[in-house]
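Lecture 7, part B: from sequences to assemblies.

Below are the input chains for today's worked example.
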Amino acid sequence: MTEAKVRRRVNGRSARVRRSVIESTLGLLREGGIDQVTVAEVASRAGVHETSIYRRWGSRERLLIDAILDLSEANLSVPDSGSLREDLTILATELCGYMSTPLGLAVAQLLSWPAKDPAVTEMQTEIWRDRIASAAKVVEQAIDRGEAPRNTDPRFIIELLVAPIHWRVLVLNEQLEPDLPAKLAQAVMDGVQPPR
Amino acid sequence: MTEAKVRRRVNGRSARVRRSVIESTLGLLREGGIDQVTVAEVASRAGVHETSIYRRWGSRERLLIDAILDLSEANLSVPDSGSLREDLTILATELCGYMSTPLGLAVAQLLSWPAKDPAVTEMQTEIWRDRIASAAKVVEQAIDRGEAPRNTDPRFIIELLVAPIHWRVLVLNEQLEPDLPAKLAQAVMDGVQPPR
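Predicted structure of the full complex, as structure tokens:
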């Protein structure tokens, strides 16, 4: 991986080819989801030979994950509204919105795919851990503000919030209802309140 | 499906063959998980020809789902301890225990598999809905007892409880820690308590 990165830097043409292949892959994902992405189609768009793609990435699966990695580094933002309830609502709203797009759905499907290739499994897990750790900052901020107890597990709170969203989309193949983000944030914050 | 059931009843040999193929499939799942199940191996154990299996089930994927369906009908129990917190802990404990066995893991993987076959997708969704509706009875009981507000959404509470368990196992490929069931039940019941 490190060697590949070095090679990329010293070789301008190689970097351009990589960029072009990754962009073509993401373009196809955006347009039609995972099934749209074939190595032949990516090669044709990027203006390279299929064999170059296989030589560099090894498989369609690894190419897809590499494209997703590229994307993940780009767009991680952490809300900081001053209220944990509000931050959780923002996170859930953004996630629901993203997963309702072809690209967002494809990313979630790819990252949850039961991969045969252990290298791919490792990359999937690493991306999830990064994302969870990033989102968990809203809980850490709340602990620092004194809004949540010191012993709150930030990662666990984020998992409670995001797991049901992935469950609905990936496992139940359901549309996400518009009030789900607020409902989730409320459930995570308040639990089951005793009846008045 | 109905026609197949009728045929099964009037034809003793056919029923025995089905039973034997399903049992062989479940046996292989118990021993080594999904990868262990090949149509050739199932046929050999059940003492039938591979072609008979393909004729009846059409594909390995459908055979696997049919075996799971058979199993699902058998073991759905609903706790009724008189306390929602306790019932949720029992449900989560049972699920975590089951998903830590080769069979339980295989069932969860199969039911979450991104199937290409729309008939399989439909069967997966149906099994999940049945399971959620069954577990949701503990919340309905709590509403009836006056322990949870009338406007509590039973299905949503169950999803909050079980989605993170599936997420940990299927997406993050993690071991489930022993205190997870109690931690989940507490989080679902109490939310994020303000610091004292």
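Note for the exam: Chain A touches chain B at residues 84, 109, 111-114, 121, 124-125, 128-129, 142, 146-150, 152-153, 156-157, 159-160, 162-164, 166-168, 170-173, 183, 187-196 (CB under 8 Å). Keep this in mind when comparing with the next example.
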